[in-house]
Amino acid sequence: DEDRALLEEAAEGKGPGFEDGPRPVVAVIGRPNVGKSTLVNRILGRREAVVEDVPGVTRDRVAYDAEWSGREFTLVDTGGWEVDATGIHLRVAEQAEIAVELADVVMFVVDATVGATDDDEAVVKLLRKSGKPVVLVANKVDDERTEADAASLWNLGLGQPWPVSALHGRGSGDALDALLEVLPDVSSVGGAYQRGGPRRVALIGRPNVGKSSLLNKLAGSERVVVDNVAGTTRDPVDEYIELGGKTWRFVDTAGIRRRVHQTRGADFYASLRTQTALEKAEVAVVLIDAGESIAEQDIRVVQQVIDSGRALVIAYNKWDTLDEERRYYLEREIERELVQVPWAPRVNISAKTGRAVDKLVPALEKSLDSWDQRIPTGRLNAFLGEIVAAHPHPVRGGKQPRILFATQASTRPPRFVVFASGFIEAGYRRFLERKLREEFGFEGTPIEVSVRVRE
Ligand code: GDP
Ligand code: GDP
Protein backbone atom coordinates (compact mmCIF):
# COMPACT_ATOMS: atom_id res chain seq x y z
CA ASP A 1 0.00 0.00 0.00
CA GLU A 2 1.02 3.57 -0.72
CA ASP A 3 1.68 4.72 2.85
CA ARG A 4 3.77 1.70 3.49
CA ALA A 5 5.89 2.48 0.43
CA LEU A 6 6.39 6.04 1.67
CA LEU A 7 7.53 4.81 5.06
CA GLU A 8 9.94 2.40 3.49
CA GLU A 9 11.36 5.14 1.31
CA ALA A 10 11.77 7.35 4.34
CA ALA A 11 13.67 4.58 6.04
CA GLU A 12 16.15 4.70 3.20
CA GLY A 13 16.39 8.46 3.21
CA LYS A 14 14.29 8.88 0.07
CA GLY A 15 10.90 10.20 -0.84
CA PRO A 16 9.02 13.36 0.25
CA GLY A 17 11.10 15.58 2.50
CA PHE A 18 14.28 14.00 1.27
CA GLU A 19 14.38 15.75 -2.11
CA ASP A 20 17.99 16.80 -1.75
CA GLY A 21 18.82 13.66 0.14
CA PRO A 22 20.53 14.21 3.44
CA ARG A 23 24.19 14.94 2.74
CA PRO A 24 26.67 12.37 3.92
CA VAL A 25 28.40 13.19 7.18
CA VAL A 26 32.16 12.95 7.66
CA ALA A 27 33.50 13.12 11.21
CA VAL A 28 37.10 14.05 11.84
CA ILE A 29 38.18 12.26 14.99
CA GLY A 30 41.40 11.69 16.88
CA ARG A 31 43.22 12.58 20.06
CA PRO A 32 43.56 16.21 21.10
CA ASN A 33 46.34 18.07 19.29
CA VAL A 34 46.82 15.67 16.37
CA GLY A 35 45.66 18.42 14.03
CA LYS A 36 41.94 17.79 13.50
CA SER A 37 40.95 21.44 13.38
CA THR A 38 43.87 22.27 11.15
CA LEU A 39 42.75 19.52 8.78
CA VAL A 40 39.16 20.72 8.84
CA ASN A 41 40.28 24.22 7.97
CA ARG A 42 42.47 22.85 5.22
CA ILE A 43 39.53 20.97 3.72
CA LEU A 44 37.31 24.03 4.00
CA GLY A 45 40.05 26.04 2.32
CA ARG A 46 40.38 28.77 4.89
CA ARG A 47 42.81 29.91 7.47
CA GLU A 48 40.83 31.65 10.21
CA ALA A 49 41.20 28.65 12.44
CA VAL A 50 40.21 28.10 16.01
CA VAL A 51 43.45 26.24 16.51
CA GLU A 52 44.99 25.95 19.94
CA ASP A 53 48.30 24.57 21.07
CA VAL A 54 46.96 23.49 24.43
CA PRO A 55 45.76 19.88 24.46
CA GLY A 56 42.22 19.44 25.63
CA VAL A 57 41.08 22.97 25.13
CA THR A 58 37.31 22.96 25.02
CA ARG A 59 35.95 24.14 21.75
CA ASP A 60 32.55 23.84 20.21
CA ARG A 61 32.01 20.86 18.04
CA VAL A 62 30.98 22.26 14.70
CA ALA A 63 29.53 20.99 11.47
CA TYR A 64 30.46 22.65 8.21
CA ASP A 65 29.27 22.40 4.64
CA ALA A 66 32.22 21.06 2.71
CA GLU A 67 32.90 20.17 -0.89
CA TRP A 68 35.59 18.29 -2.78
CA SER A 69 35.66 17.62 -6.53
CA GLY A 70 32.04 18.65 -6.78
CA ARG A 71 30.79 16.29 -4.05
CA GLU A 72 29.10 17.92 -1.08
CA PHE A 73 29.18 16.63 2.45
CA THR A 74 28.88 17.74 6.04
CA LEU A 75 32.20 17.89 7.83
CA VAL A 76 32.18 17.60 11.60
CA ASP A 77 35.07 18.87 13.67
CA THR A 78 35.07 17.00 16.96
CA GLY A 79 37.82 19.15 18.45
CA GLY A 80 35.63 20.23 21.30
CA TRP A 81 34.68 16.85 22.66
CA GLU A 82 36.75 17.07 25.77
CA VAL A 83 33.93 17.54 28.23
CA ASP A 84 30.34 16.82 27.37
CA ALA A 85 27.29 18.81 28.32
CA THR A 86 26.84 16.99 31.61
CA GLY A 87 30.39 17.75 32.68
CA ILE A 88 31.39 14.13 32.44
CA HIS A 89 34.94 13.87 31.32
CA LEU A 90 34.77 11.60 28.33
CA ARG A 91 37.79 9.63 27.32
CA VAL A 92 38.93 9.89 23.74
CA ALA A 93 37.39 6.54 22.83
CA GLU A 94 34.05 7.53 24.31
CA GLN A 95 34.02 10.81 22.47
CA ALA A 96 34.89 8.96 19.33
CA GLU A 97 32.07 6.51 19.93
CA ILE A 98 29.49 9.28 19.69
CA ALA A 99 31.21 10.88 16.71
CA VAL A 100 31.35 7.59 14.83
CA GLU A 101 27.74 6.84 15.59
CA LEU A 102 26.79 10.15 14.00
CA ALA A 103 28.91 9.81 10.88
CA ASP A 104 28.73 7.99 7.54
CA VAL A 105 32.49 8.07 7.09
CA VAL A 106 35.25 8.71 9.60
CA MET A 107 38.51 10.53 9.02
CA PHE A 108 40.72 9.20 11.76
CA VAL A 109 43.66 11.49 12.37
CA VAL A 110 46.86 10.19 13.96
CA ASP A 111 49.96 12.26 14.63
CA ALA A 112 52.56 10.43 12.54
CA THR A 113 55.44 12.04 14.41
CA VAL A 114 54.15 10.52 17.66
CA GLY A 115 52.85 7.22 16.30
CA ALA A 116 49.82 5.32 17.58
CA THR A 117 49.16 5.65 21.30
CA ASP A 118 46.95 3.51 23.57
CA ASP A 119 44.16 6.00 23.06
CA ASP A 120 44.53 5.60 19.31
CA GLU A 121 44.40 1.80 19.65
CA ALA A 122 41.18 2.08 21.64
CA VAL A 123 39.66 4.13 18.86
CA VAL A 124 40.82 1.62 16.25
CA LYS A 125 38.95 -1.16 18.04
CA LEU A 126 35.82 0.89 18.09
CA LEU A 127 36.16 1.79 14.42
CA ARG A 128 36.48 -1.86 13.47
CA LYS A 129 33.39 -2.71 15.48
CA SER A 130 31.39 0.06 13.85
CA GLY A 131 32.02 -1.27 10.36
CA LYS A 132 32.04 2.31 9.03
CA PRO A 133 34.42 3.32 6.28
CA VAL A 134 37.55 4.95 7.65
CA VAL A 135 40.12 7.17 5.99
CA LEU A 136 43.28 6.99 8.07
CA VAL A 137 45.13 10.31 8.03
CA ALA A 138 48.76 10.23 9.14
CA ASN A 139 49.15 13.90 9.94
CA LYS A 140 52.14 16.19 10.46
CA VAL A 141 54.03 14.59 7.60
CA ASP A 142 55.49 17.94 6.60
CA ASP A 143 58.25 16.53 4.41
CA GLU A 144 59.59 13.35 2.86
CA ARG A 145 61.67 12.48 5.89
CA THR A 146 58.60 11.77 8.01
CA GLU A 147 56.88 9.60 5.40
CA ALA A 148 58.34 6.49 6.98
CA ASP A 149 56.54 7.36 10.22
CA ALA A 150 53.30 7.41 8.30
CA ALA A 151 53.97 4.00 6.75
CA SER A 152 54.28 2.43 10.21
CA LEU A 153 50.59 3.15 10.72
CA TRP A 154 49.75 0.30 8.33
CA ASN A 155 50.02 -1.72 11.56
CA LEU A 156 46.74 -0.29 12.79
CA GLY A 157 44.93 -2.52 10.33
CA LEU A 158 42.76 0.26 8.96
CA GLY A 159 44.20 0.07 5.48
CA GLN A 160 46.37 2.64 3.83
CA PRO A 161 47.58 5.54 5.99
CA TRP A 162 47.44 8.76 3.95
CA PRO A 163 50.44 10.95 4.73
CA VAL A 164 49.22 14.51 5.13
CA SER A 165 50.47 17.84 6.36
CA ALA A 166 47.29 19.58 7.41
CA LEU A 167 49.39 22.61 8.17
CA HIS A 168 50.97 22.97 4.73
CA GLY A 169 48.45 21.08 2.61
CA ARG A 170 50.82 18.35 1.53
CA GLY A 171 48.96 15.14 0.62
CA SER A 172 45.54 16.38 1.66
CA GLY A 173 44.17 16.09 -1.88
CA ASP A 174 44.98 12.38 -2.06
CA ALA A 175 43.34 11.77 1.31
CA LEU A 176 40.22 13.58 0.12
CA ASP A 177 40.14 11.55 -3.09
CA ALA A 178 40.25 8.44 -0.92
CA LEU A 179 37.40 9.88 1.13
CA LEU A 180 35.21 10.35 -1.95
CA GLU A 181 35.68 6.70 -2.89
CA VAL A 182 33.94 5.55 0.28
CA LEU A 183 31.49 8.43 0.66
CA PRO A 184 27.84 7.37 0.17
CA ASP A 185 25.54 9.61 -1.88
CA VAL A 186 23.01 9.99 0.89
CA SER A 187 23.47 10.03 4.64
CA SER A 188 21.90 7.36 6.78
CA VAL A 189 22.83 8.69 10.20
CA GLY A 190 20.39 11.52 10.79
CA GLY A 191 22.65 13.80 12.75
CA ALA A 192 21.50 17.09 14.20
CA TYR A 193 23.03 18.92 11.25
CA GLN A 194 20.76 17.09 8.87
CA ARG A 195 17.74 18.92 7.52
CA GLY A 196 14.66 17.62 5.85
CA GLY A 197 12.98 14.27 6.22
CA PRO A 198 10.76 13.20 9.08
CA ARG A 199 11.34 15.10 12.30
CA ARG A 200 13.62 13.34 14.70
CA VAL A 201 12.50 12.62 18.24
CA ALA A 202 14.48 11.26 21.18
CA LEU A 203 12.70 9.55 24.06
CA ILE A 204 14.87 10.08 27.09
CA GLY A 205 14.68 9.86 30.89
CA ARG A 206 16.21 7.86 33.69
CA PRO A 207 15.86 4.07 33.72
CA ASN A 208 12.36 2.68 34.37
CA VAL A 209 10.43 5.85 33.64
CA GLY A 210 8.68 4.05 30.79
CA LYS A 211 10.62 4.89 27.62
CA SER A 212 10.36 1.46 26.04
CA SER A 213 6.71 1.14 27.10
CA LEU A 214 5.92 4.43 25.41
CA LEU A 215 7.84 3.48 22.29
CA ASN A 216 5.91 0.21 22.10
CA LYS A 217 2.64 2.00 22.66
CA LEU A 218 3.35 4.49 19.90
CA ALA A 219 4.70 1.86 17.53
CA GLY A 220 2.16 -0.81 18.38
CA SER A 221 -0.87 1.04 17.22
CA GLU A 222 0.77 2.13 14.01
CA ARG A 223 3.00 0.68 11.37
CA VAL A 224 6.68 0.69 12.02
CA VAL A 225 9.65 0.51 9.76
CA VAL A 226 12.95 -0.31 11.32
CA ASP A 227 15.88 1.52 9.85
CA ASN A 228 18.37 -1.02 8.64
CA VAL A 229 21.49 0.72 7.51
CA ALA A 230 22.62 -1.09 4.43
CA GLY A 231 26.11 -2.45 4.29
CA THR A 232 26.91 -2.11 7.96
CA THR A 233 26.76 -4.55 10.81
CA ARG A 234 25.06 -2.08 13.08
CA ASP A 235 21.95 -2.73 15.08
CA PRO A 236 18.77 -1.09 13.91
CA VAL A 237 18.74 2.26 15.59
CA ASP A 238 15.90 4.39 14.33
CA GLU A 239 12.22 3.62 13.96
CA TYR A 240 9.80 5.46 11.74
CA ILE A 241 6.35 5.74 13.25
CA GLU A 242 3.31 7.34 11.75
CA LEU A 243 1.46 9.54 14.23
CA GLY A 244 -1.18 12.20 13.62
CA GLY A 245 -0.92 11.73 9.86
CA LYS A 246 2.83 12.29 9.74
CA THR A 247 5.91 10.14 9.87
CA TRP A 248 8.23 10.70 12.83
CA ARG A 249 11.70 9.33 13.22
CA PHE A 250 12.41 8.03 16.71
CA VAL A 251 16.17 8.00 17.07
CA ASP A 252 18.46 5.58 18.82
CA THR A 253 15.67 3.23 19.78
CA ALA A 254 18.03 0.26 20.02
CA GLY A 255 19.34 1.88 23.18
CA ILE A 256 15.81 1.93 24.56
CA ARG A 257 14.81 -1.56 23.56
CA ARG A 258 17.93 -3.27 24.75
CA ARG A 259 19.42 -3.01 28.19
CA VAL A 260 23.15 -2.75 27.89
CA HIS A 261 25.17 -4.14 30.76
CA GLN A 262 28.59 -2.64 31.01
CA THR A 263 31.34 -2.59 33.55
CA ARG A 264 31.18 1.14 34.05
CA GLY A 265 28.11 2.26 35.99
CA ALA A 266 24.69 1.96 34.43
CA ASP A 267 24.23 5.67 35.12
CA PHE A 268 27.23 6.50 33.02
CA TYR A 269 25.89 4.57 30.05
CA ALA A 270 22.40 5.95 30.50
CA SER A 271 23.90 9.41 30.35
CA LEU A 272 26.00 8.58 27.29
CA ARG A 273 22.96 7.19 25.52
CA THR A 274 20.99 10.31 26.37
CA GLN A 275 23.74 12.45 24.89
CA THR A 276 23.95 10.38 21.71
CA ALA A 277 20.20 10.43 21.25
CA LEU A 278 20.10 14.19 21.77
CA GLU A 279 22.83 14.70 19.19
CA LYS A 280 20.67 12.95 16.63
CA ALA A 281 17.36 14.48 17.57
CA GLU A 282 15.63 17.75 16.96
CA VAL A 283 13.20 17.41 19.83
CA ALA A 284 13.38 15.43 23.06
CA VAL A 285 10.58 13.96 25.10
CA VAL A 286 11.81 13.75 28.67
CA LEU A 287 9.81 11.14 30.54
CA ILE A 288 9.37 11.57 34.26
CA ASP A 289 7.76 8.96 36.51
CA ALA A 290 4.90 10.99 37.99
CA GLY A 291 4.35 8.35 40.66
CA GLU A 292 7.71 9.02 42.24
CA SER A 293 9.42 12.09 43.59
CA ILE A 294 11.24 14.08 40.95
CA ALA A 295 14.86 13.01 41.24
CA GLU A 296 18.17 14.73 40.74
CA GLN A 297 18.64 12.55 37.68
CA ASP A 298 15.38 13.81 36.10
CA ILE A 299 16.56 17.38 36.50
CA ARG A 300 19.91 16.50 35.00
CA VAL A 301 18.29 15.01 31.90
CA VAL A 302 16.20 18.15 31.43
CA GLN A 303 19.35 20.23 31.77
CA GLN A 304 21.06 18.08 29.14
CA VAL A 305 18.28 18.95 26.68
CA ILE A 306 18.68 22.66 27.38
CA ASP A 307 22.46 22.47 27.01
CA SER A 308 22.17 20.60 23.75
CA GLY A 309 19.83 23.27 22.39
CA ARG A 310 17.08 20.84 21.42
CA ALA A 311 13.34 21.41 21.62
CA LEU A 312 11.69 19.89 24.69
CA VAL A 313 8.45 18.24 25.77
CA ILE A 314 8.02 16.89 29.28
CA ALA A 315 5.85 13.78 29.65
CA TYR A 316 4.71 12.85 33.15
CA ASN A 317 4.25 9.12 32.76
CA LYS A 318 2.46 6.46 34.86
CA TRP A 319 -0.40 8.90 35.39
CA ASP A 320 -2.61 5.83 36.01
CA THR A 321 -0.80 5.26 39.33
CA LEU A 322 -1.54 8.70 40.78
CA ASP A 323 -3.95 9.39 43.63
CA GLU A 324 -5.16 12.83 44.79
CA GLU A 325 -2.40 13.21 47.30
CA ARG A 326 0.43 12.32 44.96
CA ARG A 327 -1.02 14.66 42.36
CA TYR A 328 -0.92 17.51 44.88
CA TYR A 329 2.69 16.84 45.80
CA LEU A 330 3.73 16.38 42.19
CA GLU A 331 2.56 19.88 41.32
CA ARG A 332 4.53 21.31 44.27
CA GLU A 333 7.63 19.36 43.15
CA ILE A 334 7.33 20.61 39.59
CA GLU A 335 7.14 24.20 40.83
CA ARG A 336 10.17 23.67 43.02
CA GLU A 337 12.41 21.41 40.93
CA LEU A 338 11.73 22.36 37.33
CA VAL A 339 11.73 26.15 37.63
CA GLN A 340 14.16 26.48 34.75
CA VAL A 341 11.69 25.11 32.19
CA PRO A 342 8.30 26.75 32.77
CA TRP A 343 8.23 27.06 28.96
CA ALA A 344 8.21 23.31 28.23
CA PRO A 345 4.90 21.84 27.04
CA ARG A 346 3.67 19.19 29.40
CA VAL A 347 1.64 16.04 28.83
CA ASN A 348 0.30 13.73 31.54
CA ILE A 349 0.35 10.29 30.05
CA SER A 350 0.20 6.60 30.75
CA ALA A 351 2.28 4.47 28.45
CA LYS A 352 0.49 1.49 29.97
CA THR A 353 -3.15 2.47 29.40
CA GLY A 354 -2.50 4.85 26.51
CA ARG A 355 -3.99 7.78 28.40
CA ALA A 356 -3.36 11.12 26.63
CA VAL A 357 -0.66 9.62 24.43
CA ASP A 358 -2.36 11.39 21.51
CA LYS A 359 -1.46 14.74 23.15
CA LEU A 360 2.18 14.05 22.46
CA VAL A 361 2.15 14.98 18.77
CA PRO A 362 0.60 18.45 19.20
CA ALA A 363 3.15 19.12 21.95
CA LEU A 364 6.02 18.00 19.72
CA GLU A 365 4.76 20.18 16.89
CA LYS A 366 4.46 23.21 19.12
CA SER A 367 8.01 22.81 20.44
CA LEU A 368 9.45 22.30 16.97
CA ASP A 369 7.62 25.36 15.63
CA SER A 370 9.23 27.43 18.38
CA TRP A 371 12.59 25.85 17.72
CA ASP A 372 12.33 26.87 14.06
CA GLN A 373 10.89 30.30 14.74
CA ARG A 374 12.62 33.36 13.30
CA ILE A 375 11.76 36.87 14.43
CA PRO A 376 12.32 39.45 11.69
CA THR A 377 14.98 41.96 12.70
CA GLY A 378 12.62 44.92 12.30
CA ARG A 379 10.05 43.44 14.61
CA LEU A 380 12.67 42.37 17.11
CA ASN A 381 14.18 45.84 17.34
CA ALA A 382 10.82 47.60 17.53
CA PHE A 383 9.97 45.40 20.48
CA LEU A 384 13.38 45.78 22.15
CA GLY A 385 13.14 49.56 21.75
CA GLU A 386 9.89 49.55 23.72
CA ILE A 387 11.08 47.45 26.61
CA VAL A 388 14.43 49.17 26.85
CA ALA A 389 12.69 52.55 26.98
CA ALA A 390 10.39 51.32 29.73
CA HIS A 391 13.09 49.45 31.69
CA PRO A 392 16.56 50.78 30.89
CA HIS A 393 19.66 49.00 32.13
CA PRO A 394 20.60 50.24 35.62
CA VAL A 395 23.34 52.86 35.85
CA ARG A 396 26.65 51.40 37.02
CA GLY A 397 29.65 53.49 38.03
CA GLY A 398 28.02 56.57 36.56
CA LYS A 399 27.54 54.88 33.19
CA GLN A 400 24.53 53.42 31.52
CA PRO A 401 25.13 50.80 28.84
CA ARG A 402 22.70 51.23 25.99
CA ILE A 403 21.18 48.50 23.88
CA LEU A 404 21.97 49.46 20.29
CA PHE A 405 20.20 46.78 18.32
CA ALA A 406 19.67 43.06 18.16
CA THR A 407 19.37 40.34 15.60
CA GLN A 408 18.40 36.69 15.63
CA ALA A 409 21.60 34.92 14.65
CA SER A 410 20.12 31.48 14.24
CA THR A 411 17.14 29.19 14.64
CA ARG A 412 17.14 25.63 15.99
CA PRO A 413 17.32 26.85 18.70
CA PRO A 414 16.69 30.59 18.44
CA ARG A 415 19.82 32.55 19.33
CA PHE A 416 19.85 36.30 19.71
CA VAL A 417 22.78 38.63 19.65
CA VAL A 418 22.30 41.98 21.34
CA PHE A 419 24.75 44.75 20.55
CA ALA A 420 25.30 47.16 23.41
CA SER A 421 27.46 50.17 24.22
CA GLY A 422 28.81 48.61 27.41
CA PHE A 423 28.72 45.58 29.69
CA ILE A 424 25.23 44.14 30.19
CA GLU A 425 24.62 42.44 33.53
CA ALA A 426 23.48 38.82 33.65
CA GLY A 427 20.31 39.87 35.47
CA TYR A 428 19.37 42.26 32.68
CA ARG A 429 20.09 39.65 30.05
CA ARG A 430 17.71 37.25 31.82
CA PHE A 431 15.17 40.06 31.93
CA LEU A 432 15.48 40.46 28.15
CA GLU A 433 15.11 36.71 27.67
CA ARG A 434 11.96 36.69 29.80
CA LYS A 435 10.51 39.59 27.80
CA LEU A 436 11.32 37.86 24.50
CA ARG A 437 9.42 34.80 25.69
CA GLU A 438 6.47 36.93 26.85
CA GLU A 439 6.27 38.59 23.47
CA PHE A 440 7.13 35.81 21.03
CA GLY A 441 6.29 32.61 22.91
CA PHE A 442 9.08 30.16 22.18
CA GLU A 443 7.11 27.52 24.02
CA GLY A 444 9.15 24.33 24.09
CA THR A 445 12.52 25.65 23.01
CA PRO A 446 15.55 26.93 24.86
CA ILE A 447 16.62 30.35 23.64
CA GLU A 448 19.94 32.07 24.01
CA VAL A 449 20.71 35.75 24.38
CA SER A 450 24.30 36.83 24.04
CA VAL A 451 25.69 40.34 24.16
CA ARG A 452 28.40 41.97 22.08
CA VAL A 453 29.89 45.22 23.21
CA ARG A 454 30.42 47.80 20.48
CA GLU A 455 33.19 50.26 21.25
P1 GDP B 1 43.22 19.18 17.30
O1 GDP B 1 43.26 19.35 18.79
O2 GDP B 1 43.35 17.75 16.92
O3 GDP B 1 42.08 19.87 16.64
O4 GDP B 1 44.62 19.82 16.76
P2 GDP B 1 44.88 21.27 16.14
O5 GDP B 1 44.36 21.36 14.76
O6 GDP B 1 44.42 22.28 17.13
O7 GDP B 1 46.46 21.25 16.03
C1 GDP B 1 47.29 21.07 17.17
C2 GDP B 1 48.67 21.62 16.88
O8 GDP B 1 49.32 20.86 15.86
C3 GDP B 1 48.67 23.06 16.39
O9 GDP B 1 49.77 23.73 16.94
C4 GDP B 1 48.84 22.91 14.88
O10 GDP B 1 49.45 24.03 14.30
C5 GDP B 1 49.74 21.70 14.80
N1 GDP B 1 49.58 20.98 13.52
C6 GDP B 1 48.42 20.59 12.95
N2 GDP B 1 48.66 19.98 11.76
C7 GDP B 1 50.02 19.98 11.59
C8 GDP B 1 50.89 19.51 10.55
O11 GDP B 1 50.46 18.95 9.53
N3 GDP B 1 52.21 19.68 10.74
C9 GDP B 1 52.70 20.29 11.84
N4 GDP B 1 54.02 20.41 11.92
N5 GDP B 1 51.93 20.75 12.82
C10 GDP B 1 50.59 20.62 12.71
P1 GDP C 1 12.45 2.37 30.56
O1 GDP C 1 13.57 1.81 31.37
O2 GDP C 1 12.39 3.86 30.69
O3 GDP C 1 12.42 1.92 29.12
O4 GDP C 1 11.09 1.86 31.26
P2 GDP C 1 10.12 0.65 30.85
O5 GDP C 1 9.27 1.02 29.70
O6 GDP C 1 10.91 -0.60 30.76
O7 GDP C 1 9.16 0.62 32.12
C1 GDP C 1 9.62 0.32 33.42
C2 GDP C 1 8.49 -0.27 34.21
O8 GDP C 1 7.43 0.68 34.36
C3 GDP C 1 7.85 -1.49 33.52
O9 GDP C 1 7.53 -2.42 34.52
C4 GDP C 1 6.59 -0.92 32.88
O10 GDP C 1 5.58 -1.88 32.74
C5 GDP C 1 6.20 0.15 33.86
N1 GDP C 1 5.45 1.24 33.22
C6 GDP C 1 5.81 1.95 32.15
N2 GDP C 1 4.88 2.88 31.84
C7 GDP C 1 3.89 2.75 32.75
C8 GDP C 1 2.63 3.44 32.99
O11 GDP C 1 2.24 4.38 32.29
N3 GDP C 1 1.92 3.03 34.06
C9 GDP C 1 2.31 2.01 34.88
N4 GDP C 1 1.52 1.69 35.87
N5 GDP C 1 3.47 1.35 34.68
C10 GDP C 1 4.25 1.71 33.65
TrEMBL record:
GTP 2 binds at residues 205-212, 252-256, 317-320. Gene3D superfamilies: 3.30.300.20, P-loop containing nucleotide triphosphate hydrolases. Keywords: GTP-binding, Nucleotide-binding, Repeat, Ribosome biogenesis. The keyword Oxidoreductase does not apply. One of its GO terms (biological process) is ribosome biogenesis. SUPFAM superfamilies: P-loop containing nucleoside triphosphate hydrolases (SSF52540). Coiled coil: none annotated. It comes from the Bacteria. Residues 24-187, 199-372 form the EngA-type G domain. GO terms for molecular function: GTP binding; ribosome binding. GTP 1 binds at residues 30-37, 77-81, 139-142. Belongs to the TRAFAC class TrmE-Era-EngA-EngB-Septin-like GTPase superfamily. EngA (Der) GTPase family. Associates with the 50S ribosomal subunit. GTPase that plays an essential role in the late steps of ribosome biogenesis. PANTHER family: GTPASE DER. This is GTPase Der. It comes from Knoellia koreensis. The lineage of its organism: Bacteria, Bacillati, Actinomycetota, Actinomycetes, Micrococcales. The gene is der.
